[in-house]
Amino acid sequence: MEAIEFKVKWGMVINIDKCTGCGACMVACQAENNIAPMVDGSDKRMTLTWMLVYELSNGKPFPEHDIAYLPRPCMQCGKPSCSTVCPVIATTKDEEGGIVSQIYPRCIGCRYCMAACPYHSRYFNWYDPKWPAGMEKTLNISTSVRPRGVVEKCTFCHHRFMYAKEKARYNGEDPMDLPEDAYIPACAEICPTGAIVFGNLNNPEHKVAKLAKSKYAFRLLERLGTDPQVYYYSEREWVRRQGDNYLPHEKTKGE
Amino acid sequence: MAKGKSCVVLPFLIGFVGALIVGWGLFPKLLYSEKAQPIRFSHKVHVEDQGMACDECHTFREDGSFAGIPTTEECAECHAEVMGEDPAEAKFVEEYVNEDREVPWLIYQKQPDNVFFSHIAHQDFDCTTCHPDVGNSDTPPVYYENKISGYSKQTMKMWQCERCHAQNGASNACYVCHK
């Protein structure tokens, strides 16, 4: 399938060297996107974590031991594996901005997309969402709640893009040429160390466009050809090496 | 021979007419419950008699979102006390302004939870392109509620949105309207 070229391509650069693994992005994401409290948080096959922080280790003993944390949203791939396998067109990549959509009422819960996604970014609703009494008042009106039996994933807080466009229109600006930080997802907003940078990859004035071109920038499993819109940044070679399945004799990208 | 033929046709004709009556007349009556607005709000009094424009009450907020129906507080800027003779106004002041309550207006065009409709993106269109022409009404139209889905009968359907988008060259990508 031919990939669509967009004028606006929202992207993220996550600086792994800045990430402390605090998990604020995960919490912000769950609150922003109406993800109900987990039934059993220890059972990772059943939980919903649109944003998930992984722990990486260089596997060496002390004193060479080193760890890093890798937050993983949906990669919003340029050539998504998920949308091409969806039998009911519930997930597509066709809107300006390049965010992979997920339409819950249309999803039939077959989970082909989950099998296809190489990043495990997609989650299945095993349970009906339930909030403890009173907590339903904290629900975000901007995000629709998903029922049991459908697949969901990170949408780069797409509703915030909608709001940013509305504001631009109100101010008489071009909604397709948003300034830096006019639209950022909840995870990028909350990150206390500023590890997550968000913006338009096609706009050379945006920070992400510069960062993505750095020699320390890499993408996960880049050689699969999914063309993700999420970039990672680390000056540590062993971290960059874990971003793809390198053979021992292969050189790390950027080296 | 002719008699035998009419005996075959007649039951089908009765069935056909019966089905039409049920399908066009009875079933919609059964499916939709008719509701009246809590207050008999007259747009005519405001628009024609007072010369108010639509956007005096139905405003955009500074973040570009649409405020929709004004709050009781905004209505009370004029209606802090009963101004006219209309019993509906007296009821509004008594039950809502004095009690500091919001009126549970029925929204004819209320969209499902997963729809993100941006009014400001459609501001070049007339309101009546999508909304019923309430602006000239003295009594608000009857609200038909679908007993199964709970949605208003007048709610714009997805095919209507899509058709207009296609005709005007706007994108029909899912995330243009959905959230």
Structure description:
Chain A is an alpha+beta fold and 255 residues long. Chain A has one domain (10-241): Alpha-Beta Plaits (2-Layer Sandwich). Chain A is built from seven helices and eight strands; from the N terminus they run E-H-E-E-H-H-E-E-H-H-E-H-E-E-H. Chain A has helices spanning 24-32, 81-85, 112-116, 158-170, 186-190, 207-212, 237-241, and strands at residues 10-15, 52-57, 67-72, 122-124, 151-153, 196-200, 217-218, 230-233. Chain A has a four-stranded mixed β-sheet with strand order 6-1-8-7. Chain B has helices at residues 2-31, 43-49, 54-57, 72-79, 87-97, 158-167, 174-177; strands spanning 32-35, 143-146. In chain B, helix 4 crosses helix 5 (87-97). Chain B contains seven helices and two strands, in the order H-E-H-H-H-H-E-H-H. The longest helix of chain B is centred in the first third of the chain and has 30 residues, at 2-31. Chain B has a two-stranded antiparallel ribbon. By secondary structure, chain B is mainly alpha-helical. The interface between A and B is medium-sized, with 27 and 20 residues.
